[in-house]
User: Fold this.
Amino acid sequence: MALPEPTVPQKKEGVVTGNDLAVAGGLIVIVPRYVTAGLGDYIDLIFNGTSVLQRIIMDLANEPPFSTIIPAYNVPNGNNTLFYTVTDTFNQTSTSPAAEVFITGNSQAPSPPLAMAVSTNAASIDYDAINVEPFNQGALVGRPTAQVNVTVSEPAFIYESHSQKYSFFLDQNGLGFFKVYSPRQVMIYLTAYETDRPDRVLHDTMIFGPYKIGNENIEAINFTTHAPANGRTQNSIYLQTRPQAGGIYITEIDVRVNGHAVIAGYNAQAATIALNSDNSVAINITDTYVERVTVILRLPQVAGGAFTLNTDFVAQPVPGIAAPGYVRDR
Assistant:
């Protein structure tokens, strides 16, 4: 069934002010009447990923519309998203288009909780054997300029502090980033909390794994996955080729990615990258969409097939707001 989007009467050119919220006691949202409304339809209104209104149509002559007021203390400043679902008596569910509303000047806005996402599956570091530095990477989102503390379990280290602890300040947008490396293949436990909110501790894990055999000319390969899709945190590929094949020296690799991903340092979906002196290379990829990215690797100087792998980008850790695209299970 075709559904109209929910309406916000206070919205003017897409914006609702803190004064508008104060006058009404919150954000007014209306689920409008829709053409296919039927008795027993179950309506669920979603605000920033949270259900805020559930109704069943009992009086078709007068319902819908349905309305609710979301209290101002539950309405964050910035972009907010509203939509609703309708499930009929045959258990068929339809979803409305999303309505976007920008809130400004809400003095009662909630302080966002700290959120974290980390990539996983980097190789343990062995620079003597392969001249790359494999990292799992993390992203934090919280209150702008808040001081945060990250810890990792042994034997891992946080790159920015070269220790198991790292204290730093989120930027003006409430974002913070870090990298983790390990000398051994192991599961690592992470914690993160804001300095002035030590009782609200986040927990996560990441894995450091092995290199694997690629193909006849790629002797070792490892890659990370599940980086958040924020355009900055990277999924990375670490590999080492044979020095030569058929008497031809191998000095470069062609890389191609699909979807919305780009190769870091090249801002493109295809690049030819020079290998290190030991025939190793680190290839870094970023994305702004939640999606699975296919990476194709070729050695243009020698014969042989392409090596293909898939790596996932997941939702940026913003409570209630996900990056565009789909969310994959970890």
Observations:
- Residues 167 and 229 are 24 Å apart (CA to CA).
- Confidence is low (pLDDT under 50) at residues 319-330.
- Residues 18-24 form the longest helix (7 residues).
